[in-house]
Each structure stands twice: as C-alpha cells, then as structure tokens.
Design brief:
With 104 residues, this protein is of the alpha+beta class. It is built from 3 helices and 4 strands. The protein has one domain: 2-Layer Sandwich (Alpha-Beta Plaits), CATH 3.30.70. A hairpin with a 4-residue loop joins strand 2 and strand 3. The chain is globular. Pfam families: rhaM.
C-alpha cells in the first residue's frame, strides 16, 4: 500500500540558496537509503516569505524518512544541514506532521 506523508520544517532566513544547493547535490548513499526504505517519491516545497518547507512523501508501508534517524548517513546529513535549519539538540530537523484535509 502506498501512503502519503506530509510535514513542515523551517530553514533559517537567507539560507534558501544553500538549502537548494545541498539538495541538488544530495549524497547518493542517502538517496539509496531513502529508496531502499520505501520512500518512492519525496518533494519539498519552499515558502520564501516564511522560510517554511513543506514536504510530501509517498512511501510503501507506514514509515518515511523521518523514521530513519538511527542510520549513520541520516545523522551525518542532519549534522550537515543543522547550520541552516531549525533542529533539535540531536541535529534532527524540527518537523511537524501535517494533516491531510483534502485530496482529489
């Protein structure tokens, strides 16, 4: 079964170009981990007025990228991104699940 997961995160104002650059150059081993873990599609949208990110994932199963925090490559990515995002003490991004209210 394919499930959609949506959540929001926030980058630090002025970090938009760097955030884009880092994702344009996402590490192949991280991309592979996501795909191997059942993340079929993953899109992130930026609201430039608020520096808010809106992410949508299609996953095979119940879990998505937010459930991979024990993986070394994910922890390394979090550390790499921590200087430009709102994060927790362990460098994981502050992520707020979004509730689906409409689907066509």
């Amino acid at each position: 079964m394919i499930k959609q997961i949506a959540f929001r995160m926030k980058i630090k104002p002025g970090s938009e170009a760097e955030y884009q650059k880092r994702h344009d150059e996402i590490w192949p081993e991280l991309r592979s981990l996501l795909k191997d873990s059942g993340v079929l599609n993953y899109s992130i949208f930026l609201d430039r007025e608020t520096s808010m990110l809106f992410a949508i994932q299609e996953v095979a199963g119940e879990s998505g990228s937010q459930d991979l925090g024990n993986e070394a490559i994910v922890q390394k990515w979090w550390a790499f991104m921590a200087d430009i995002m709102d994060t927790h003490e362990d460098n994981s991004p502050v992520s707020v699940p979004l509730e689906e209210v409409f689907k066509l």
